[in-house]
Amino acid sequence: MVFKVHGAAAWLRLTIIATYASWALCSCSGLSVSDPIKAPEWPQWLGPNRDGISTEAAWTTDWPEEGPTVLWKASLGEGPAAVSVKDGRLFTMGYVDGSDVVYCLDSETGEEKWRYAYPCAKFDQAHDGGPSCTPSIDGNRVYTLSREALVHCFDAATSEIVWSKDMRERLEQDLPAYGVTGSPLVEGDRVIIEAGRTFALDKMTGDVIWESEEFVAGYSSPITFDFGERCRVAVFNQFGLFIFDVESGEEIFRDEWKKVNHCVTPVIQGDRMFLTAYYGDGCRLYKLDPAGIEKLYENDNMKSVYAQPMVLDGYLYGFDFETLKCIELETSETVWEKEGFKFGLLSMADGKLLIMSDQSELIIAEATPEEFREIANAQVLGGLCVTMPTLCNGLLYLRNGKGEMVCLDVRAP
Q1: Beta carbons of 4 and 32 less than 8 angstroms apart
Q2: pLDDT less than 50: residues of the chain
Q3: R_g of the chain computed on alpha carbons
Q4: What are the C-alpha distances in Å from 265 to residues 9, 135, 218, 275, 329?
Q5: pLDDT at 216 (0 to 100)
Q6: 204-225 pLDDT per residue, tens
Q7: Of 50, 68, 298, 374, whose CB count within 10 A is highest?
Q8: CA of 15: how far to CAs of 20, 37, 310, 342, in Å?
């Protein structure tokens, strides 16, 4: 049985159809980590495969003493929103003077192409606040989600609003303490949103196709995967793990895990699903089998606050509270650990960890279970950082909580 984690962008589907015609019959339309990607792009939260791993290798850590070249800088308002990049455009969000602002920039120059602002609360409890959503790009459309559960669909080139929906109208509860912080997921003809209910919206019109029962929204983002011959979506809300059928909305599995703040997107590797949270049990691993989903372990060996962990060759790299750890995925046994980053964040590319400390220090290290091996480091931003680093086309995008963004040129000569 093969399980594939899903990306959302239409260009990925066209690449698959052109290269592997037989995939047209698959019930889901995404890619696995091993699938070929012709052009490095980053069209959604956690990248094309929604796993935080860049496929490109044409970048360098051979930097001068003062660090990599700064290509451009921008001030984008407060917020931890990461970036999405496609067709030379970069999309992100920030909070400015009582409003969320959606930005479209030239990805190589930082030139502003357009912006769109709308009123929204800041939700600055225990951090700077501001939008957390990473925009999702699908064809010529961009989808965003505010902390107040407002969904927008924009024309990527012009900023024209194709449609918008206020999901609070379908809720019978107040928003959670930090608002809605997840990112939209485009799957086939629908956009999947986690906002107190799990919603599947028609991506062309915004009409609700199906919605789950009501629960307390978590701070995680949904992820889809093949499950037998069906496409499923996993969400990690404040009630626990829920898995729904993408086509019908039928709930096929739940494992309650209450009284915790769930910030991490479920990690799917083959027929394994890994969850982690700082509050509560720490981490759980499931075996995904259409005959019955089995919990393989439950312990506190990995307790992530909000840093997304990533898996390479059977080993998971992530932040256990303030300590960077490498653990064996199948057993959760700690292989090595490294302190000093506090609440760090990371992504991965070409067998390397791209780490941002909470004080905006960039560290590159080998992604190896042997030991922690630092390759390079640079202090490129100041202030608190709560945004994962993004590498795309040899350009590295970093951002702090105040909205200062820097684009570093790390392209290989």
Answers
A1: yes
A2: 1-4, 7-27, 29-38
A3: 19
A4: 18, 15, 10, 8, 16
A5: 85
A6: 999 999 999 999 888 999 999 9
A7: 50
A8: 8, 8, 25, 40
